[in-house]
């Protein structure tokens, strides 16, 4: 009887540990993470359409989409936390796409035509790359 109880107890403990590990994994996936500082890209490495959108941001437009310049809420919390209204989003044209596609620039700072920082996402906010500041900006 004692050996069965020991085996059963060990099994229950192993099951509990396994379940708690799975719960921890689920929680880890839900927890937002900051964009790593190493996730940077130079302006010249971006697709030409993103370079054009970046130029439009710094010249104040005109932008091809009505939603360009709208406040980006950072709901994914992948970008550094800032006050609401700090970040604005801009569509990066995707050749062949019938809609706005998944590519965006998200820039932050005031005025919007002179942002402090810009990020590129090719996957509709699932990940971001910080655009390294160009010389003179």
Automatic annotation (TrEMBL):
The record's keywords, sorted A to Z, are: Hydrolase, Nuclease, Signal
Q: What does UniProt give as the signal peptide span?
A: 1-28
InterPro entries of this UniProt entry?
A: N1-like, Ribonuclease/ribotoxin
**Mind telling me which SUPFAM superfamilies this protein's record contains?**
Microbial ribonucleases
Record-linked Pfam families: Ribonuclease
Domain of life (superkingdom): Bacteria
Can you say what this protein is called? Ribonuclease domain-containing protein
Q: What organism is this sequence from?
A: Pelomonas parva
Organism taxonomic ancestry: Bacteria, Pseudomonadati, Pseudomonadota, Betaproteobacteria, Burkholderiales
């Amino acid at each position: 009887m004692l050996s069965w109880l020991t085996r059963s107890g060990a099994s229950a403990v192993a099951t509990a540990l396994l379940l708690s590990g799975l719960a921890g994994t689920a929680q880890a996936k839900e927890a937002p993470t900051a964009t790593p500082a190493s996730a940077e890209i130079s302006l010249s490495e971006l697709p030409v359409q993103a370079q054009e959108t970046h130029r439009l941001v710094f010249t104040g437009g005109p932008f091809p989409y009505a939603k360009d310049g709208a406040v980006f809420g950072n709901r994914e919390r992948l970008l550094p936390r800032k006050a609401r209204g700090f970040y604005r989003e801009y569509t990066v044209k995707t050749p062949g796409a019938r809609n706005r596609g998944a590519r965006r620039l998200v820039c932050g700072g005031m005025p919007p035509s002179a942002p402090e920082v810009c990020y590129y996402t090719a996957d509709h906010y699932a990940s971001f790359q910080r655009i390294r500041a160009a010389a003179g900006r």
